[in-house]
Amino acid sequence: MSGMKEDEFPILGSTQRCDRHFEELLKTLHKWTTGSSQATGQRYTFRSKELVLDYKLRLQFWAGSVGVDDELMDCLDTQLRKKPDLRTLVLQLLQLVDTNLQRILHFESPRNRLGLVVHYIFKPWLGPPTLTPASGAALDAIQGCIERLNHLAITIR
Fold this sequence. Notes:
This protein is mostly helical. It has one domain. It is 80% helix and 0% strand. It is built from seven helices and no strands. Helix 2 runs antiparallel to helix 3 (38-66), helix 2 runs parallel beside helix 5 and helix 5 packs antiparallel against helix 7. The longest helix is centred in the N-terminal third of the chain and has 29 residues, at 38-66. The two termini are 26 Å apart.
């Protein structure tokens, strides 16, 4: 997307950024599960990846239901030009989703997770590594933002 188009359609741009970050996070979680033992990866994959994928699909469903990427004259950015307060609220919620996705990507990066995996190797009775508490809190924030976006969808329509 060009810079000019991003300025004209910030909701579309924010939604696309969130989608890219969801994909990057899913790849990161997949690397953790394929790089660890089968026993370590199963619980980590099932809970974390399923949750992230669910939130990604929920955001995509919201975007489709309000017409984020419809024709230029019918898209959400165009519809909300006459409702700046609502537009600002949607943009802030999308920014919160994006910011929290970036936080999770940072917390779950291989360099930050290395200590947890090494700890599990030497103390397997503690169980396989899961998302860090900070990542769990960021996922909760993402869930709350998506729920609020869904509530706003009623007002937008």
